[in-house]
Specification:
Helix content is 72%, strand content 1%. It is an all-alpha fold. It has a two-stranded antiparallel sheet with strand order 1-2. It is globular and about 65 Å long. 40% of the residues are buried.
């Protein structure tokens, strides 16, 4: 067994096939994934990540005779490399991701920071809904996004460009996909980190584990401090995070320098070809599995899905701290209606009507009655 980089001696489809798979994956995620997540964030994120980022590209690659597992480096799992990736991902949150986010949040206008605050994904869920969101952020997103961005996109680019431009371009596309201008710089940084891990190890697994550790650590920051990342932290706290995080990363670099086998993934070098299946059967089966999976997940939290959908149809901005007492009282009544719907004591239409009345009053700068 030998360690084979992601970009060498691997069965590779044409650039056109890889490009079509990537564009369709991103396009379907933006178009259909956005709709699914609007109805239920947790269920929508799980289904759109799995079926758009993994299922669709895998189908396209298989129909060209290429093994998706071998192509993206999914067959190169090694426990020590995965563990090392997790340590690097967690340390990087403190060393670079949070400090960069702290700087960006002070460069952009406060209104823009609030609008693109990623912590909103954790707000207003039922217990079941929160479990779905947390598991999607911690498991589905790291696994599926690494397969698409580092496994497929970066692998295709490195076969055609020099390593540095390929890693940088992949990181930029990864950051742009999140559609968050405030977090663009930190996202490019973590994207580069995941890319280096995939390129250096010859496997997507260290990047997957680093991505999962990054998301889990950031989530824990939010729940422990009440805000995401370095938001609200003092300069001294951010400086201490930067110092400790980089100390850990430096230790990891020294360790890998002395024992390079810690970040390598033994894997057979021979190409693996697969027989294409019937396209219509595979597409129909995939669509059926996607719809059934989504229906099942939404069914676990149906009332939560009703609340989420109503809030998307009649969106209201976050209540400012200096809002009038009348407006605060109206929002309190709205929250009571929300709780009634979740408890089964009200209907979707009744809650939506109340929200639309509130929305109309606030748009007209009127204090609701």
């Amino acid at each position: 067994m030998e360690s084979v980089p992601l970009t060498e001696e691997r069965p590779s489809p044409s650039g056109a096939v890889s490009g079509i798979a990537i564009v369709l994956a991103l396009g379907t995620f933006v178009i259909f994934g956005t709709v699914l997540q609007a109805i239920h964030p947790g269920a929508g994120l799980w289904v759109s990540e799995v079926f758009c980022f993994v299922g669709l590209p895998a189908l396209i690659l298989r129909q060209t005779g290429t093994s998706p597992v071998r192509l993206v480096g999914l067959d190169g799992f090694l426990g020590r490399s995965a563990l090392l990736g997790a340590v690097i991902g967690a340390a990087n949150v403190f060393a670079w991701a949070s400090p960069l986010a702290w700087v960006c949040e002070r460069v952009f206008p406060k209104s823009m920071v609030e609008r693109f605050d990623q912590a909103h994904v954790f707000e207003g869920h039922t217990a079941t809904g929160m479990v779905l969101v947390l598991s999607a952020v911690s498991l589905a997103a790291p696994f599926c996004e690494e397969l698409l961005f580092r496994g497929l996109l970066q692998g295709a680019l490195v076969r055609r460009l020099a390593v540095v431009p390929a890693l940088l371009l992949t990181a930029i596309v990864f950051a742009a996909f999140h559609m968050n201008p405030v977090a663009l710089v930190p996202l490019v940084q973590v994207g580069l980190l995941f890319g280096v891990l995939a390129w250096r190890s010859g496997s997507v697994w260290p990047g997957i584990c680093a991505h999962a550790a990054n998301n889990i650590t950031s989530t824990l920051q939010y729940f422990l401090t009440g805000h995401e990342g370095a938001e609200g932290a003092t300069p001294g706290e951010v400086a201490s995070w930067f110092a400790v995080g980089n100390l850990v990363l430096a230790g990891v670099v020294v360790l890998v320098w002395r024992r390079p086998q810690l970040l390598s993934s033994p894997r057979p070098a021979e190409a693996v070809r697969v027989a294409p299946g019937d396209t219509k059967t595979l597409v129909r089966g995939g669509l059926a599995a996607m719809l059934l999976s989504y229906a099942a997940l939404v069914g676990l939290d149906f009332r939560g899905a009703q609340v989420n959908f109503a809030e998307q149809l009649a969106w209201l901005p976050k209540l400012p701290a200096n809002a009038s007492p009348e407006r605060k009282a109206a929002r309190a009544r709205l929250e009571e209606e929300r709780k009634k719907l979740l408890a089964g004591e009200s209907s979707f239409s009744a809650y939506l009507e109340v929200r639309r009345e509130q929305q109309k009053a606030e748009k007209g700068n009127e204090e609701p009655k």
